[in-house]
Specification:
Elements (H helix, E strand, L loop, with lengths): L18 E2 L23 E2 L34 E8 L13 H15 L5 E13 L10 E3 L2 H13 L3 E6 L6 H6 L2 H4 L4 E5 L18 E2 H18 L4 E7 L5 E2 L10 E7 L5 H12 L7 E6 L13 H5 L7 E4 L1
Parallel strand pairs: 3-4, 3-13, 4-6, 6-7, 7-9, 8-10, 9-11, 11-12, 12-13
Antiparallel strand pairs: 1-2, 4-5
Keywords: Signal
Protein name: Lipoprotein
Length: about 325
């Protein structure tokens, strides 16, 4: 559900999720402390199920026969538009639940037809919440836990069945992005696996995810992009997508420090929720600081957006300026 107000409580090494949110503009929104008691607008709510990590990771899947993107080729833009769903093992994360991946892929395919109106080929995306921030310190005190390899493998296998990219979403808690990314290197060597970074869940010492908005810097994002670029060049991989989600102007500081790197496609995904007017206002505010070398992305919420008005249609999304290159549904 609404990721920007999720506070994922966890026992040691247990990933859980909860969701909430109301439609307010970029300048007005502030995070609320975690509450397990309500599901009304403006309050958080617990998920209907809590995932439990599998104890034994499975081997990394073999690479696809050729180092190309799903459907062939090695470049993302401008040939493609990315359209996908977010989710994970908790229903609170979105519709990309482990027992409904084929159904979710069918829904993405149905949406894809409405986004393929300008000559681009739609490339489906599964965005899996892989590093999960929560409100308890866990074993290492860093307020995040990791999904095990067998979960990632299952999502990658499903993505490949449907010709989709898999993006590994990172909510780092008190850890830093680069350390969380490098521990996923064996997955990033796959030609159809990229990254999605969630800086609102990147908090400092003494802060708890969900109590405050976390943040990152353009320099930190650039360090991840440089790392990905080195992997692409060393292993002759197709271009890698690197999404960073942004819900508020304070969440990413100094964006201009994120510069172009060969083989990396950075995408700024605007996560504002609410009515169409509120979402468009947030879009305009956050696009104003987007570096020219970063592609635009837009996020919609099946539940939270529709609590405040009709869900924006693909035609309305495509009418945004600039036109989104990545459209994500949660």
């Amino acid at each position: 559900m609404r990721r920007s107000l999720v506070l994922l409580t966890a026992a040691v090494l247990t990933a859980a999720g909860c969701a909430a949110g109301t439609g307010v503009t970029d300048t007005a929104r502030t995070p609320t402390p975690w509450s397990a008691s309500s599901s009304s607008p403006g309050e958080t709510r617990t998920p209907s199920a809590t995932p439990s990590p599998s104890p034994t990771p499975s081997p990394t899947p073999s690479p696809t026969p050729s180092a190309t993107l799903p459907g062939g080729g090695t470049t993302i833009l401008p040939e493609h538009r990315l359209v996908g769903f977010a989710g994970g093992r908790s229903p609170a994360f979105g519709r990309l639940e482990p027992d409904a991946l084929d159904a979710a892929a069918a829904q993405i395919d149905a949406l894809a037809a409405e986004y393929a109106v300008d000559g681009r080929t739609v490339l489906p995306v599964f965005e899996l919440i892989t590093v999960v921030a929560h409100g308890s310190p866990a074993a290492d005190g860093l307020y995040r836990t990791h999904e095990p390899d067998d979960v990632i493998a299952a999502y990658l296998e499903a993505a490949r069945r449907h010709g989709a990219l898999l993006l590994l979403n990172i909510q780092p808690g008190r850890a830093d992005f680069l350390s969380e990314v490098t521990r996923l290197e064996h997955w990033l060597l796959e030609p159809d696996v990229g990254l999605a970074l969630d800086p609102e869940w990147a908090v400092g010492p003494g802060e708890v995810p969900g109590d405050v908005y976390g943040s990152t810097t353009g320099a930190e994002l650039d360090s991840v992009a440089a790392y990905l670029s080195a992997l692409v060049q060393e292993h002759d991989l197709p271009e890698k997508v690197m999404v960073f989600h942004q819900v508020h102007s304070s969440v990413v500081e100094g964006e201009s420090a994120l510069v172009a790197h060969p083989g990396v496609v950075p995408i700024k995904s605007v996560d504002g929720i609410g009515s169409r007017a509120d979402k468009e206002k947030t879009w305009t505010t956050l696009m104003a600081t987007k570096p020219a070398t970063v592609a635009p992305g837009f996020k919609l919420f099946f539940d939270e957006d529709t609590a405040l008005g009709p869900l924006m249609t693909p035609a309305q999304v495509l009418a945004l300026v600039p036109t989104p290159d990545y459209v994500l549904y949660e």
